[in-house]
Amino acid sequence: MDNHYSIYICGVGGQGIIKTSTIIGEAAMNQGLDVVMSEIHGMSQRGGSVSTELKIGGYNSSIIPSQGADMLLSFEPIETIRGLDKVNSETKIVYNTHPIIPSSSDKAYPSVDSITKTLNENFKHVLPIDGTKLAIDAGSVLALNMVLLGAVTADDNFPLSKDSVIDAMKNNLKPKFHDMNLKAIESGYKSIKG
Amino acid sequence: MNLKELVTGVNGDKHFLLGNEAAVRGVIEAGVSIAATYPGTPSSEIGNVLSVLAKDANIYFEFSTNEKVAMEVAATAAASGLRSFTFMKHVGMNVAADSFMTTAYSGVRGGMVILSADDPSLFSSQNEQDTRNYARLANVPILEPSNCQEVKDMVKYAFDLSEQFQIPVIVRTTTRVSHMRGVVEFGDVGDNSTNNENHWKRGHFKKDPSQFVPVPAFAGEMHVKLWDKIHEIEKITNKSDLNAEIDFASDKKYGVISSSSAYNYAHDVVKFNNLDIDILKLGFSYPFPQEKVAEFLKEIDEVFIVEEVDPIIEKETLATIGVKKMDVTVHGKLDGTFPLYHEFNSDVVLDGFNKILNFKKENDIKYSSSLEKLQDDIPSRAPVLCAGCPHRAMYYGINKAIEELGLKTDDVVFASDIGCYTLGINPPYNAADYLLSMGSSVGDGCGFSVSTDQKVASFIGDSTFFHSGISPLINAVHNKHNFVLTVLDNRITAMTGGQPNPGIPIDGMGDEAPEVSIRKLALACGCDYVRVINPFNLEQVVKTYKEAFERNDTAVIVSKAPCTLIKGLTKKPPVNLIESNCNNCDKCVSELACPAISKINGKIVIDKSQCDGCNVCIQVCKYGALEAGR
C-alpha cells in the first residue's frame, strides 16, 4: 500500500482550510498520484467547524473511514478533539495551540495544556505547534495555513515532496505573498522536524 | 488554478477540480449557449464560476429569480435549437417542477440538461429528497456521476443524449460529488461560436403548436411519444458503458449494485477488505437497465443494493427479480441492511456488508476516561450570524419591541424563511418557529393570522422575496391578513456565497442591470404600511416594529443594510471597551450574541479582528462601557 495517505484537516471557517487542502491535492496530482478530496461549503462557513478530507492513492471515496487517517491536521485545539474519530494509534496528530473561543457556547473552553496532556495519554504521535505565533513571525496571522502546510510535509510518511507542495502553493496564491508563505512553510516544517 | 483555464484548457489537460467546476467544463465542452439557475447549495459554485466565465465561453448566463424561471429559460432555448443548461439544488426541482414536467412532454430540439444536486445528511437543506424520483415522475433519463471526471463527462454526454432523443436529461449529483475535488482530464471544447453581435449564439424558434402547446388534444399525443422515446432509450441503458461491472470476485455468490457517491464507498470497502464481490455500477440509471441488471443477477445468489436516500434501485431490482422469475436475495434499505436516511460512508457500507458476511475485525480503541470526558465537554461551534451582520440588529430590535409592547414570547409566532437569517432560530433571538420552503414565510403569515389570535412576524430575505415572496404578499393584502412581514434586504444572496439578485444593479454576468425596488413592489402589492429601516439604528427599529405590530393589516418593513461579507464595503473601526464603565451586566454577550464579543475570565473582551464597527452593542450598553472606534 505504498503512497496511500489520508489527511483529515479541520478547524474553523475562514482559516484557509480548503485552500491548504487544494494545494496538497494539486501537488499530489502533479506528482502523478491519484487524489480525491472532500470539502464542506454553505452554512458551515458562518464561523462553524470546517473540515476537509484528502486521500492520496487509489481511493474512490473522498471520505476517510473512522480511524483511517494517517494525519490529523487541526487549525484549532478543540477542533482536534472533534476530529478524533478519524484517528488510530499510528496517526500523527498535528495541531495549532491557539484557541478560537466560540462566542455563544453552553460550555467552558478547556485549557490547551489539558488538551495536550489528555492527547498524550492516549496517542503516540501528538505534535502541538504554536502555528499562530509562527504565522505572525512569518509576516501575518493569515499565514497560519502555510505553517501547518509546512508541518504536513515534515512527516516521514507523507508521500509528496516539500518542493512539489511549494510549487502548488505558488500556483494557487498571489505572488506578492510567496515570500511570506515560503517562510511560513519553512517554520512549520522545522517545528516538526526540529 | 486560474478559473479561465476551464475555458482555455485543451484536450488532455489535467486539473484538480471541484465537482461543480467539472460540471462547468462539461458545459463548455458540450458547446452550451444558454445557462440559468437560482443559487442553491450544493450546486451554487456552478453559477459562481459560470458568471465569471460566461462571456469568454460564448454563454448567456443568468441568475433567474427562481428555479422555475431558470427551467423556462433553458426549455425555450432548447426549443429554439440551442444547447441549454439549468442547475439547482434538489429542492429547487420542486419549484421548477410544474414547467419541468411539461418540458418532458414537449421535448426539445437543442440539447437540454438539468443538473440537480441532492443533499443527503442535509448539510444545508431542509430535506433529503431524492432527485431520482423526478426522473420517474416526469419520465426522463437520469445520469448519476460518482466523481469529478464523471461529472464532466456525463454532463457532456447528457447533451448528446438529449439531442438524439429530443428529451431533457437530468444529471443527479450529491453533496459529496458536487463538493468532491479530484483530477479531471479535459476533452475538446464544443463549438458554440456566436452568429451575431452578442457574445452568445442565437437560435430560431420554428413554430409547431402540436409539439410545444400542450392543450389536451396535443398533450395526450405527447405522452405517447414520450413513452416511445423512453422505450428506445432503455435499449441504450442496457448496453451503455456507464452501467458497467467492476470485477473483484472469483466465486460469484455475492454482488453489489450501486450508483453515485454510494458507489465510491462500496468500491473502497470491497477493494480494501479484499471482499469476493463484483459490483454493477449504474451511471445511467433511468430508464432502468433491467436486462443488464438481470444479466448480473443471473451469476449470483445474493445482492447488496448500495444507494443513498431512497430505495429506488432496490425496488427496481426486486421488480426485475419478479419479472425474470429469479431466485436472488436482496439486501438493501428495505430489509434493514443499510439505513433508510442520511448519507453513507465506508463505515456504514462496511457495517451493512458485515451483517451478512461477518468479516469485520473488532478494533475498538479504548480511550482514557479523561479523553472521554473532554470529548463530552468541548463547547459546540455552530454556525452563527457574522459580526456586523444586519440581521442580528434587526432580531435584537424586534424582540425589544415585543418586550416593550408587553407581549410574551408565546404571543408572537415567527415564520422564518430560507437564508442566513434562519440562524435567528438560535438563542438569544429565538426568532424562527415555523418554516417550510423558499418564500413560505409570507404564506405562513397568512395562515397563522387567520388560524390564531397570536401576533405573527414573518422574515424573508431580499433574494427569497424575489424568488417566491411576491404572490403570497398579494394574497395577504387581498385576503386582509394581519401580520408583519420583514424583508431582510442585505443587498445580496448571502447564504449561497454572494450572488446578485434583482434588488441590486448588477446581473449574473457582472453587467449593469435595472434595480427592482422592494419598497415599490410592496406598495404595488397594495400594502398601506411599508417602511424602510436601517437595522443598525436600534431606536428606529424598535419604534417601527411597535407601530407595525399595532396595525391590523399586512405591514411590510424593509430592513435594509448590506451583508458584511460583500467585498469592497468601507469598514468602520472596531468598537472600544471602556473597562471602568463596565457593570458586568453581560447584556452585550447574552442578548446580542455577537461573535466579536465574549466574556473571558470574568471580563468582557472585544475581538478587534472580528468587530465590524456596526456599533449596535454601543446602543445596547446602558453603562457607556462601549464606544465607537476612531
Please bin the fraction of helical residues of chain A: 25-40%
User: What pair of chains forms the biggest interface?
Assistant: A-B, 59 and 65 residues
Mean pLDDT of chain A: 93
Determine the structural class of chain A based on helices, strands and strand pairing. Answer: alpha/beta
Instruction: Provide the structure class of chain B.
Output: alpha/beta
Order of helices and strands of chain A: EHEEEHEHEHHHH
General shape of chain A: globular
Main sheet attributes: strand count, strand direction, barrel closure of chain B: 7 strands, mixed
Task: Enumerate how many helices of chain B there are, as a single number.
Answer: 23
What's the quaternary structure here? Answer: heterodimer
Estimate the mean pLDDT confidence of chain B.
96
Tell me about the biggest sheet of chain A? 6 strands, mixed
How does the overall form of chain B come out from the CA principal axes? globular
Number of strands of chain B: 23
Distance between the termini of chain B: 40 Å
Question: Could you explain how this protein is built, in words?
Answer:
- The complex is a heterodimer of chains A (194) and B (630).
- With 194 residues, chain A is an alpha/beta fold.
- Chain A contains seven helices and six strands, in the order E-H-E-E-E-H-E-H-E-H-H-H-H.
- Chain A has a six-stranded mixed beta sheet, with helices on both faces.
- In chain A, helix 4 (131-138) crosses helix 5 and helix 4 (131-138) runs antiparallel to helix 7 (178-193).
- Chain A is globular and about 45 Å long.
- Helices cover 37% and strands 17% of the residues of chain B.
- In chain B, strands 3-2-4-5-7-6-12 form a seven-stranded mixed beta sheet, sandwiched between helices.
- The model of chain B has no long low-confidence stretch (mean pLDDT 96).
- Classes of the chains: A alpha/beta (194), B alpha/beta (630).
- At the A-B interface, helix 1, strand 2, helix 2 and helix 3 of A face strand 1, strand 8, helix 11, helix 14 and helix 15 of B.
